[in-house]
Specification:
Shape: flat
Largest sheet: none
Helix content: over 70%
Low-confidence stretches: none
Order of helices and strands: HHHH
Mean pLDDT: 87
Distance between the termini: 36 Å
Radius of gyration: 17 Å
Structural class: mainly alpha
Number of strands: 0
Strand content: under 5%
Number of helices: 4
């Protein structure tokens, strides 16, 4: 996905790719929730498919956001904005699985 990300951002516009990738992840997540509720026996398959598709789309959005940053942010604030963007990404990587684990531990799926 990474080699195609720059191509898609240049070809179709970084802003458009960023918005479409985020919307598609949201739609795929809702579809996965519905499929999991309807077909609990296949939960792992739906989660694997969601992970694959979301990973591909997330990479598209990330590269598009990176290419939009210089156009939207004043050059004097660019380093600070990159730091904030990286901080948010690291928080998501750290706390996302932790919160999911807490949900799995305390919420009964059946």
């Amino acid at each position: 996905s990474f080699p195609l990300s720059g191509f898609f951002a240049d070809r179709f516009g970084a802003r458009r790719i960023y918005i479409v990738s985020d919307l598609m992840i949201a739609v795929l997540s809702l579809i996965a929730i519905i499929l999991i509720l309807l077909f609990k026996d296949l939960m792992i398959i739906w989660l694997i498919l969601l992970s694959i598709l979301s990973g591909f789309l997330s990479e598209q959005g990330y590269v598009s956001a990176e290419s939009l940053a210089p156009k939207l942010i004043d050059p004097s604030y660019y380093a600070k904005s990159q730091s904030i963007l990286e901080l948010l990404e690291q928080f998501a990587l750290l706390f996302g699985p932790t919160i999911a684990g807490i949900f799995i531990l305390y919420i009964d799926a059946e």
